[in-house]
Specification:
The complex is a heterodimer of chains A (221) and B (342). Chain A is α/β, with parallel strands linked by helices and 221 residues long. Chain A is built from five helices and twelve strands. In chain B, strand 4 and strand 5 form a beta hairpin. Classes of the chains: A alpha/beta (221), B alpha/beta (342).
Chain lengths: 221, 342
């Protein structure tokens, strides 16, 4: 991803930009064209700052697009995004990408804001009998947890790396996968997160017998 | 102290202007850095003593010698360079009969997560500056023998486009090293917006990592397929003109039973139909815990012949430096970085 000169975009008005956890936000703006759950779009605030890709975190039928993002204090774009207020302008590309083909009974594995495409798929009714394994450092970073508990029940597994022992699994997603008794090698696996998380999780799944062609990954580029 | 090696002529002009030095000092600096191989400001004898002193107060030339070299039985050498923040990168020097190729890294680690690549397993640590990219050429003992440079080491070059373009500008400019763009190849997995910018600003050869013409298979091998599918990358490439002077090639690692069948030949021919290009077939060099295996040699030859029969110029790349982990897809400094951080 480089400059906006190589991307088509439109100017949108921010509808809301809500803090949902310390340093984490949901940005909403009007949906001007349809998208498929799992797709990304490029977002920016000015031509001087490199646009970044974000997975859409809302249902296909919603009238608004939701983007889940974390502010990176060393970043250029997210500190600017965090300052946006309703009515401010943002630059938005068309939705694109093909991380959209979900087979039945999927196992979604995400870290942090990597949960976004899976939320979109679940809310769009495209992921029947899904299991979701989500990793975060603290309880407040389990975004959409109320919805997920209601929707997935025991198939919603939270891996909290810095929590005290309690009702959540204490440790990273990869620690959970290593000792997961119910891992089913016949299910399709979908991963979303940083390169390190995706590569390590993919290697673990392969080592536990999941066929490599049953693993599909989206990495934050 | 700020390193000055790897600054473009415009950046050098900004530096000398900020110091209140005459503008022509920038050209003199470029000549010393990129033509006369100066390693200190003291060597730049046509700069005034005052100018040398002013520059030395804030800047260093900034060359870094390799910390280690490994030599393969086939003559390939792998150089290990330290960079900032306890990080390391590797470059491979590959001598051949009448040429010597240097494979340089553009990032420390890589974000792309390709299934077959050792660099992916160390994650992403950061972009290299133009100076750190060029230092891999300038600071090896074989500097003067290098005839070709390929950006095929650690990292995705188009994910660090600004610094890669700066390094290419310095390599190919008259005020810089004066290399022909025909001696340089940049390899990418196909980040489409960055490709457009690359074509605007560079005439260097381009290599695209293809590895499967089928969506599902390429997605399994290369997560980038979910964002920039190869069909869209090829559609983008069709907008540009390629020739022997501005070559387009496709890298194709051969995986046993996965992407080496007649079905793949047929689909490759369909995908690349009408493009002036070539395909380089590469043996897969196994990495730990990988489910992938390399195709047998006779199948690689059959695959090449089948593609050739379809009218696609196809070569088989010789594996070099496998015994020192310098071959394609094997570069990694993960263990070293972890050790250094401990």
């Amino acid at each position: 991803m480089k400059s906006w000169n190589e991307l088509g975009y439109e100017i949108q008005r921010v509808i809301s930009n809500t803090v949902i956890a310390p340093g984490s936000y949901i940005l909403k703006f009007k949906k001007n064209q349809p998208f498929t759950a799992g797709q990304v779009l490029a977002l920016g605030v000015s031509k001087d700052i490199e646009p970044r890709l974000y997975s859409i975190a809302s249902a296909e039928s919603d009238e608004l697009i939701s983007i889940l993002y974390s502010e990176r204090t060393d970043g250029k774009l997210t500190p600017m995004l965090s300052l946006l207020k309703p009515g401010d302008n943002i630059m938005v590309s068309q939705p694109f990408g093909t991380f959209t083909q979900v087979k039945p009974s999927p196992v979604f594995i995400a870290a942090g804001t990597g949960i976004a495409p899976f939320i979109s798929m679940l809310q769009s009714g495209k992921a029947r009998n899904a299991t979701l394994i989500h990793g975060a450092p603290y309880p407040e970073y389990f975004y959409f947890s109320e919805y997920l508990m209601n929707t997935l029940g025991e198939h919603y597994i939270r891996c909290c790396s810095r929590c005290a022992p309690g009702c959540l699994f204490v440790g990273r997603v990869t620690h959970f996968i290593k000792q997961w008794d119910s891992l089913d090698i016949n299910k399709p696996y979908y991963l979303c997160g940083s390169t390190e998380m995706v590569v390590e999780t993919r290697d673990l799944l392969i080592s536990r017998g999941v066929p490599v062609n049953s693993i599909n990954a989206e990495i934050y580029f | 102290m700020v390193p000055i090696y790897g600054k473009t002529i415009d950046e050098l002009k900004s530096i000398v202007n900020a110091e209140g030095l005459p503008s022509f000092t920038a050209t003199q600096l470029a000549e010393w850095l990129y033509r006369h191989n100066a390693e200190t400001f003291d060597e730049m004898t046509n700069l005034s003593k005052k100018a040398r002193g002013m520059l030395a107060a804030k800047y260093v030339v900034g060359l870094t010698k390799p910390e280690r070299v490994s030599e393969s039985a086939d003559g390939t050498k792998k150089y290990l360079f330290p960079i900032a923040n306890n990080r390391f990168i590797e470059a491979a020097y590959i001598p051949d009969s009448d040429r010597a190729t240097l494979c340089v890294s553009s990032q420390s680690g890589c974000k792309m997560g390709c299934l077959f690549c050792m660099t992916a397993k160390q994650g992403f640590q950061g972009n290299l500056s133009a100076g750190e990219i060029l230092n891999q050429l300038r600071s090896i003992p074989e500097y003067q023998q290098v005839t070709n440079i390929v950006y095929m080491g650690m990292g995705e070059p188009l994910d660090n486009l600004d610094n890669v373009l700066k390094s290419l500008e310095i390599l190919t400019s008259k005020w810089g090293m004066g290399w022909s763009a025909k001696r340089i190849t940049v390899s990418t997995i196909g980040l489409i917006p960055a490709l457009r910018q690359f074509f605007e600003k560079s005439n260097c050869h381009l290599a695209i990592s293809l590895h499967s013409p089928f969506d599902q298979e390429r997605r399994m091998l290369m997560p980038i397929q979910n964002v920039y599918p190869i069909s869209e990358v090829v559609a983008e490439l069709r907008k540009y003109k390629f020739s022997d002077h501005h070559r387009l090639s496709f890298e194709y690692i051969m995986f046993d039973g996965l992407n080496d069948t007649p079905r793949h030949v047929k689909e490759l021919a369909r995908l690349l139909n009408g493009l002036t290009c070539r395909i380089n077939l590469i043996r897969f060099h196994p990495i730990p815990n990988s489910p992938l295996r390399t195709s047998p040699d006779d199948r690689i030859v059959q695959f090449r012949d089948a593609l050739t029969a379809k009218g696609i110029y196809t070569t088989i790349r010789a594996s070099r430096g496998q015994d020192i982990q310098a071959a394609c897809g094997l570069l990694s400094t993960k263990a070293l970085q972890e050790k250094r951080i401990q």
